[in-house]
């Protein structure tokens, strides 16, 4: 979970995740969406996402194809849900006690 949260803390990586959310894209297609960034920099972001288990990587000839791996955020989503539900329960109790 820690690695996934560190990975999504970066706005570029979140943008990449949104780009691959609805389907696979090649590294080149993704790099084209970030013209202000070098291709090696985009590749580094993709590597961080893959190492965190947030994207799947598939070789297609000499290209690498990236797709979102939604289960990669499952632990983080569960943690946030537990924190959120605890806060809502406390709010509900506070309102009912007034």
Automatic annotation (TrEMBL):
<dbReference type="Pfam" id="PF12840">
    <property type="entry name" value="HTH_20"/>
</dbReference>
<keyword id="KW-0238">DNA-binding</keyword>
<dbReference type="InterPro" id="IPR036388">
    <property type="entry name" value="WH-like_DNA-bd_sf"/>
</dbReference>
<dbReference type="InterPro" id="IPR051081">
    <property type="entry name" value="HTH_MetalResp_TranReg"/>
</dbReference>
<keyword id="KW-0805">Transcription regulation</keyword>
<dbReference type="GO" id="GO:0003677">
    <property type="term" value="F:DNA binding"/>
</dbReference>
<dbReference type="InterPro" id="IPR036390">
    <property type="entry name" value="WH_DNA-bd_sf"/>
</dbReference>
<protein>
    <submittedName>
        <fullName>ArsR family transcriptional regulator</fullName>
    </submittedName>
</protein>
<dbReference type="GO" id="GO:0003700">
    <property type="term" value="F:DNA-binding transcription factor activity"/>
</dbReference>
<dbReference type="InterPro" id="IPR001845">
    <property type="entry name" value="HTH_ArsR_DNA-bd_dom"/>
</dbReference>
<keyword id="KW-0804">Transcription</keyword>
<feature type="domain" description="HTH arsR-type">
    <location>
        <begin position="1"/>
        <end position="95"/>
    </location>
</feature>
<dbReference type="InterPro" id="IPR011991">
    <property type="entry name" value="ArsR-like_HTH"/>
</dbReference>
